[in-house]
Amino acid sequence: NEHWDEWVPESRLLRANEEGRAIQKERVKDFQRAHKRKQKLDLGAAGGSSSKKAKGSGETSEETLCAELRESLRLPHGMKLKLIEDWERITREKKLVPLGDGRCTPSVKELLDDFMAAKARRTSHERLYGEVCDGLRSYFNQALPTILLYKYERKQHRDNKEAKGVSPVDVYGAEHLLRLFVKLPELLARCNMQREHMTVLVAKLTELLKFMQGQKAKYFVADYEVPDDGYLAWWGQAEHA
What we know:
transcription regulation; chromatin regulator; Chromo-like_dom_sf; mainly alpha; globular; MRG; MRG domain-containing protein
């Protein structure tokens, strides 16, 4: 739809490949910092920190808007812990999120379908939720290979893409969708979306986060998989490339 078209083009995902690598490194640092604090995580305290940054006198309008969006799209406590666990399983334990038929939990597409169905039973704004979910599907498909994968996951993505020939929303799940939420404030701050449209979008995205939080046992995998020897051999070369 026209509102999502204001920020969904692939050209806006990353300004350059170098920036993409910088963003990936920064996200890892964010997760590391979060890991050190995870026993002390307090949602209210986290919000206060973001507010202070938003008021910094040296920030540009884009940075200010990004800070505002981070405040509006704060992850629920349980989702923060899921991000930390996801980072640990992949970067430290060298495991992978099961994909496609190997998943015992719903895909991103199925998760969004469930969310829409739940909202359709409780609200008259079914069309609006449909637009938001359609936009998220499209954006997830574009963003997944560009900014949502750790380097360790690239071969898995390549192998799955070549073997299945299906869209990321059909094989990836809540773990990678949650990573997209980490980047949304920065990405939304760069778009030309009207403020009123952005406010509505953020409200619906917040509802989706709460939906994922409330049913995390259903949508997040409990066990990551250990790749085979061939995959580990690939990583031994790719890690230092």
